[in-house]
Amino acid sequence: MSTDPATVSLDDPYTARGGRVLISGIQALVRLTLEQRRLDEARGLDTRAFVSGYPGSPLGGVDLELARARRFLDPAGVVFRPGLNEELAATAVAGTQLLGQVPGRRHEAVTGFWYGKNPGLDRAADAMRHGTVAGTAALGGAVAWIGDDPGSKSSTVPSSCEPMCQSLAMPLLAPGSVPEILEFGLHAVALSRATGLWAGLKIVADIADASAVVDLDALRPDIPAPSAAPRAAPPTLVGPASLDAEHDMLTRRLDLARAYAREAGLNRVTFSATHATLGVMASGASYAVVRRALADLGIGEADMEALGVRLIRLAMPFPLCDEDLVAMTADLDQVLVVEDKVPFLERHLKAALYGSADAPVVVGRHSENGRPLLTARGTLGAEDVAEALARRIGPDRLPRTATTRLASPAPPAAPRIALPTVSARTPYFCSGCPHNTSTRTAENTLVGAGIGCHAMIALDGAGRGHQIGLTQMGGEGAQWIGLAPFTDDRHFVQNLGDGTFHHSGSLAIRAAVAAGVTMTYKLLYNDAVAMTGGQRPEGRLDVPALTRWLALEGVRKVVVTTAAPADYRGVRLDPIATVRHRDDLPGAEKELAATDGVTVLIHDDRCAAEERRLRKRGQLPIPAEKVVINERVCEGCGDCGDVSTCLSVQPVDTTFGRKTRIHQASCNSDFSCLKGDCPSFLLVEPKTTKTTKTMKKAKATKTAKTTKAKARPRAVPQLPVALTAPTPAVDGESTLLRMPGIGGTGVVTVSQILQRAAHLDGRYAAGLEQTGLAQKGGPVVSDVRISATPVTGAVRASRGTADVLIGFDLLGAAADANLRIARPGHTIAVVNSAIVPTAAMVTNRVVLPGSPDDALERIESATRPGDNLYLDAQSMTEALFGDHMPTNMLLVGAAFQHGCVPLTEDAIEGAIRLGGAAVEKNLAAFRWGAPPPSTPRPYGVPWPHRNGRSWRSHPRRAPSRPRPRPPGPARSRTPSPCAPPT
Question: Which structural domains are found in the chain, ordered by start?
Answer without folding.
Answer: 11-261 (3.40.50.970), 266-406 (3.40.50.920), 434-612 (3.40.50.970), 623-684 (3.30.70), 734-929 (3.40.920.10)
